[in-house]
Amino acid sequence: MAALDAPASPALSAPRAPRRPAARGLKLVLAIAVLALAGVASLAIGARPINPETLVQALTAYNPANGDHAVVVSRIPRTLVGLLAGAALGLAGAAMQGVARNPLADPGILGVNSGAALAVVIGIFVFGVTNFTGYIWFAFLGAGAAAVLVYAVASLGRDGATPIKLALAGAALSAGMVSLLNAVLVSSQQTFDTFRFWQVGSVAGRGWDVIVPVLPFLAFGFALTLLTGKVLNSLSLGDDIARGLGQNVTAARALTALGVVVLCGAATAAAGPIAFIGLVIPHVVRAFTGPDYRWILPFSMVLAPVLLLAADILGRVILPPGEVQVGILTAVIGAPVFIWLVRRRKMAEL
C-alpha cells in the first residue's frame, strides 16, 4: 500500500505531456512564417528587384501603368505554383517514406514523376493533348502506373520490397521511362516543342490557367494525405503490430497511395518532374518533430515549398540575365543527400 501511495516520479508526471504538442505547434507557426517570407521574397527578387514599399503598393493599390507593379503581379502565379507544387511533393514524399518504411522514398527517385512525365508525352504525341486539363489526367495515370510497377518489381525475390530494392527498381524503371520519353521526343518535333519547357521542372511561365484546374485535385490530395498520420504511425510499427492494433494494412496502404498519386500527378502536371523535394524535407523535419507522422506530414507540407521557392529564387539570380530551372537546382541539392542516406546503414528502415 505504501508503494501505491508514493508520489509519482517526475519522469511519469503529466505536466510535461501537453508541452510537447504546444512546442510543436509553435514550431509549425514559425515554419508558416518562414514560408510567408519565402513567398514575399519570390515576389520581390529576380532579374528586376522590387523594394518592399513598391511590393506593398503593387499588392494593395495596383497601377497597371507602373512597370514594377506589373512585374510583381506577373510573379504571383509563379509563386503560387511553387507553393502548391512544393507542398504537394513534400507531403507526398513524407507519406511515401511512411507507407513504405523507406527513407529513400521520393516521387522522383521511385519513378513516380518519370511515369507521370512519360504519360503526358504520350498524351501529347498519340492523343494530341494540348491543354492543361488533359495533362492532369495523363499525369495521374502515369504516376499511378509507375508506383504500382516499381513496387511490383521490388517485391520480386527474397525479402520482398526492401528499401534498397525499391530505390534500385525506381532508379532502373525511371531510367527506362526517361529513355522512352526521349525516344518519343526525338521522333516528333511538335511534341518536343510542346514538352521541352515543361520537362526540366520549372515554375516559370505558369499562369492562372495552370493553377485553377489543379486546385481541386491538390485540395483532395492534401486533405486525404494529412488524415493518414495516425495510419502511418501504426504502419511504422510493422504490419503485424498494425494488424494487432486493428488496422487494415492493405486498405491503409491503398488510401495513402491514392493521396500520393493525386499529389504527385497534380504537382508534376503543374510544374514538371521536380525531384528530391520529397526526399530532403521529411528528413529535415524528423530532426525536430520525432517519428510522429501526425506532425511530420504538416511540417513537410509547409517547409517543402520553402526549399522549392528558395531554389527558384536562386535560379533567377545565379546566371543573369538567364535563369536556371528549379528542377536542376533541387537535383543539385538533393543528390548529395540521397547518396548520404544510401551510405547510412542505420537508415535502412524507418
Shape type: globular
User: Mind summarizing the main beta sheet?
Assistant: none
Sequence stretches where pLDDT stays below 50 over 5 or more residues: 1-19
Q: How many domains, as an integer?
A: 1
CATH superfamily: ABC transporter involved in vitamin B12 uptake, BtuC
- Helix % is over 70%
Secondary-structure element pattern, one letter each: HHHHHHHHHHHHHHH
The CATH level-2 architecture is identified as Orthogonal Bundle
- Number of DSSP helices? 15
Rg (C-alpha, Å): 22 Å
Q: Mean pLDDT, as a whole number? A: 83
Q: How widely separated are the two ends?
A: 43 Å
Q: What class would the helix/strand composition place it in?
A: mainly alpha
CATH top-level class: Mainly Alpha
How many strands in all? 0
Your description of this structure?
Keywords: Cell membrane, Membrane, Transmembrane, Transmembrane helix, Transport. It is found in: Cell membrane. This is Iron complex transport system permease protein. InterPro entries: ABC_BtuC-like, ABC_transptr_permease_BtuC. Its main location: membrane. This protein is mainly α. It has a single domain, classed as ABC transporter involved in vitamin B12 uptake, BtuC (Orthogonal Bundle). 74% of the residues lie in helices and 0% in strands. It has 15 helices and no strands. It has helices at 2-5, 19-44, 52-60, 67-100, 112-127, 132-154, 163-187, 189-199, 208-226, 229-235, 239-244, 249-271, 277-289, 293-317, 326-343. α2 (19-44) packs antiparallel against α4 (67-100) and α4 (67-100) runs parallel beside α9 (208-226). The longest helix is centred in the N-terminal third of the chain and has 34 residues, at 67-100. The two termini are 43 Å apart. Mean pLDDT is 83; it is low at 1-19.
